[in-house]
Amino acid sequence: MTDCLFCKIVAKEIPAKVVYETERTLAFGDLNPQAPTHVLVIPKGHYQDAAALAAADDGLADEVLKTAHAVAVQEGVADSGYRLVFNTGPQAGQTVFHVHGHVLGGRDLQWPPG
Ligand code: 5GP
Ligand code: ZN
Fold it and tell me: Where is the HIT domain (predicted)?
């Protein structure tokens, strides 16, 4: 997609702090971190939200989940605990419409979320 922020990060047209990468996924630091560890995990291909990714039906959603866990291990939050969030749709707070999982950790996280 030409006018998508995260597609531009994949294409390296916009800089990002990449922390982990596989053939089909990319993980990079959130611009406005909400926790000591706050990494976004995306498929390199464009899917607008978790529903579209779930429908991809080619193991890509599985790969995104595995990348998210690998990021948590690499960033040292897997043992203490981390949260994986896919805001899906405007009412749930999605603002960038290229599916992304937030990997949040490094501090106590409250429940329920706001
Ligand atoms: P959403 O609200 O869609 O779940 O999450 C979008 C996230 O993207 C936000 O946490 C926001 O801080 C992050 N973000 C927005 N623009 C950029 C950017 O240009 N670079 C990076 N690394 N993160 C961004
Ligand atoms: Zn995109």
Answer: 5-114
Domain ranges of the chain: 5-78
Residues flanking ligand 1, CB < 6 Å: 5, 14, 16, 28-32, 87, 93-96
pTM: 0.98
CA distance 86 to 1: 20
Tell me what pLDDT residue 2 has: 79
Query: What percentage of residues in the chain have a pLDDT greater than 90?
Result: 96
Q: Please indicate whether residue 46 is annotated as part of the active site.
A: no
CATH number corresponding to 5-78: 3.30.428.10
Q: What is d(CA 46, CA 17) in angstroms, rounded to the nearest whole number?
A: 19
Confidence tier at 3 by pLDDT (50, 70, 90): very high
